[in-house]
Design goal:
The structure holds 2 protein chains of 2 kinds. By secondary structure, chain A is of the alpha/beta class. Chain A has helices spanning about 10-20, 35-45, 60-70, 85-100, 125-130, 145-165, 175, 245-260, 265, 285-300, 320-325, 340-350, 370-380; strands spanning about 5-10, 25-30, 55, 75-80, 105-110, 140, 165-170, 180-185, 230, 270, 280-285, 305-310, 310-315, 330-335, 355-360. Chain A is globular. Chain B has a single domain (about 5-280), classed as Thiamin diphosphate (ThDP)-binding fold, Pyr/PP domains (Rossmann fold). The longest helix of chain B has 15 residues, at about 30-45.
């Protein structure tokens, strides 16, 4: 019956689109930008096939605005862009945090600043956390492979729905433009989460009543429940109370608390050869794959190296890094930027391990040799076998 | 037109009266516009829950605090884009996009012309009080040449947008202008705009007595409305006047009303054509 084989060779950006459709996304608004455009192209073709809508907006501000409109209408919605477009979208990412719209923004990172180049970087990982005004906690996932892009897009959509908050998929030009095998699960095999719906009758309903888990239950427009989405500081009814310091404090702290309550579920890290490691590499995205190769090469040389790869950029896996810092002597942090997540690693290590930043900003992927060179440079001399 | 319902009834049906008094200055035109829009909604006979207001930021941005309708209030200038996403995702809703002159034609100008170009079935109501009232009276793209604003202390040097011409040029299929003085006509035009199957734009020329009126010595709300009415010229009359005579006048009427393919409808035709039932999970 199914025409398509379940295992397919896919482009990273295509996996993002297919993952979104599998997650139930039925609205996508986009604006062309390299290296993210393929997601929009696949969505334009695929969404009508599943009863969804694609629209190309006049700019990135417009795309995220349209996504918000669709999300308020009760439809799972997302957009994809690359770094310059991601800068333009910060306004509405911030608005979506306080308006509590479930939505997903995929950022296929390229080199900055400005127009920069159109290849690849990991230069927006701090922007993901701090770019939107207000500085509230964000959720951001970062895939290392095409298969993981598919899976994390689903996870991003699920979390955005469950917590009613924007979720970021921070991929990059390497993973976005790489082709790998993806096994597409049958629809029933994927766990889907939907946004909470009101449990009280319409006359008792207040749209921003946060409930026990700090996530308001907001139904789609057009029903018996009256919904007042409001991106200004508001009370439970959605009425602006921006002049009241009490509501300001409550609003900001609740929005932070609803994410912080789920840090353990949200943060996912994978360890390779970490059991007896004395030198650790902490990496994310495609760099983690190069780092794994370098760790294995280091082991062959007799160096006790291990890898911690994080899938969750934000909230930062503080606990895991703190534990790692207690165990190892050195943590090497390779990144395709001037050193961003290394600041978080330093903060969590709190002086318990030596931190080594390895950076690359020529828009090319960090190589295993680059990481290995740093590992051997910092490894205690006794671990390195003399050349035969 | 049906007999006008008493205001007390209108308030009960469409407003959160318990939240009154509003934050608006005495004599503000927003009240007139809201009355006209809610009366027009009544006259369409469509259920109130089928209406959603997409609202920008500005004085009128607070209307959602008082209106008993579903509301989307998020950001300055992005109203046409939000409304586009909402309408496309939910073609069953009647989407009213409420904007001010600064919101619609300055920060949101790009979104406005593209929504008009798509001819998507949204009713855009632009309340034109010729100033940014909420921030205290800065000049907007609709401030009249020579008028004063806090950021035009020596008089406005930039020519104003003709919002209706802008919308018509961009492809809106229903374009009209009316004033807060002409309430009966405003109700009628807004109803036609809602019923129009395509992008409809209604510019409502409004008084801002406390900010704009004071700064430009137009007097209080009543004298502002009188002056507004003295400047008003109907479309029929305007056709007999020279461009010199029309300078500074407010031409009211329906400038365009044409039925052309509507974007949401066209898109759903595509969905019906290419939809694959086996994937419709």
């Amino acid at each position: 019956m199914r025409a398509k084989p379940r295992a397919r060779l896919m482009l990273g950006n295509e996996a993002c689109a297919e993952g979104a459709i599998a997650a139930g996304v039925r609205f996508f608004a986009g604006y062309p930008i390299t290296p993210a455009t393929e997601t929009a192209e696949v969505m334009a073709r695929r969404l009508p096939e599943v009863g969804g809508v694609y629209i190309q907006m006049e700019d990135e501000l417009g795309s995220l605005s349209a996504v918000v409109g669709a999300s308020a209408g009760g439809v799972k919605a997302m957009t994809a862009t690359s770094s310059p477009g991601f800068s333009l979208m910060q306004e509405f990412i911030s608005s979506a945090i306080i308006g509590e719209y479930p939505l997903v923004v995929a950022n296929v990172m390229r080199l900055g600043p400005g127009i920069g180049n159109i290849v690849a970087s990991q230069m927006d990982v701090m922007q993901a956390r701090w770019g939107a005004h207000g500085g509230l906690p964000m959720i951001a996932f970062c895939p290392s492979s095409v298969r993981e892009t598919f899976e994390l897009t689903i996870r991003a959509v699920n979390w955005s729905e469950r917590l009613r908050t924007p979720v970021l998929l921070m991929t990059d030009g390497v993973v976005g433009h790489m082709r790998e095998k993806v096994v597409i699960p049958e629809p029933g095999e994927i766990e889907l989460w939907n946004r909470p719906l009101p449990a009280v009758p319409p006359e008792e309903y207040q749209c921003f009543d946060p409930g026990p888990d700090n996530v308001p239950a907001i139904p789609p427009f057009g029903g018996k429940y009256r919904v007042h989405y409001n991106a200004a500081i508001h009370d439970f009814r959605g009425v602006t109370t921006m002049a009241d310091p009490k509501w300001c404090e409550y609003g900001v702290r609740r929005l932070a608390a609803k994410i912080e309550a789920h840090i353990d579920e949200l943060t996912e890290t994978h360890s390779v050869l970490m059991d007896d490691a004395e030198i650790a590499v902490f990496a994310y995205g495609p760099v983690a794959r190069a780092a794994e190769a370098s760790v294995r090469q280091a082991r062959e040389m007799g160096i006790k190296a291990g890898l911690m790869r994080t899938v969750t950029l934000w909230p930062f896996p503080e606990k895991q890094v703190r534990e790692m810092a207690k165990q190892v002597e050195v943590i090497v942090v390779p990144e395709m930027n001037l050193g961003q997540m290394v600041l978080e690693v330093e903060r969590c290590a709190a002086g318990q391990a030596q931190i080594e930043s390895v950076t690359r900003v020529d828009s090319m992927l960090i190589t295993p040799k680059q990481v290995l060179d740093r590992i051997t440079a910092v490894a205690p001399r006794r671990q390195i076998p003399w050349p035969s | 037109m049906a007999k006008l319902k008493p205001l007390t009834e209108l308030r009960k049906e469409h407003f959160h009266f318990s939240r009154f008094p509003t934050t608006y200055c005495p004599g503000c035109g927003i009240g007139n516009v809201l009355q006209a829009v809610t009366r027009a909604i009544d006259e369409t006979g469509r259920p109130p829950e089928s209406f959603t207001f997409a609202v920008g930021i500005g004085c009128y941005g607070n209307i959602g605090n008082y209106l008993d309708f579903d509301e989307l209030r998020l950001s300055h200038g992005r109203v046409p884009a939000m409304a586009t996403g909402l309408k496309l995702a939910r073609p069953d809703l009647n989407v009213i996009a409420m904007m001010g002159d600064g919101d619609a034609t300055a920060i949101g100008g790009n979104h406005l012309i593209h929504a008009a170009r798509r001819n998507i079935d949204i009713t855009a109501i632009i309340l034109n009080n010729h100033t940014y009232g909420m921030t205290g009276g800065q000049y907007s793209p609709a401030t009249r040449l020579g008028d004063y604003a806090t950021t035009a202390p020596y008089g406005m040097l930039e020519p104003a947008f003709d919002i209706c011409k802008l919308a018509e040029g961009a492809g809106a299929t229903f374009v009209a202008r009316t004033t807060t003085f002409r309430m009966v006509q405003t109700i009628d035009i807004v109803r036609r705009a809602i019923e129009h199957p395509g992008f409809a734009l209604v510019e409502i020329d409004s008084q801002c007595p406390v900010i704009y009126g004071r700064m430009n010595r137009w007097g209080d709300a009543v004298s502002m409305l009188k002056k507004q009415n003295a400047l008003t010229v109907t479309l029929e009359k305007a056709k007999t006047m020279t461009p010199e005579e029309l300078k500074g006048k407010i031409v009211v009427g329906i400038f365009k009303q044409a039925v052309e393919p509507e974007f949401t409808g066209e898109y759903y035709k595509v969905i019906n054509r290419v939809r694959r039932p086996q994937d419709a999970s």
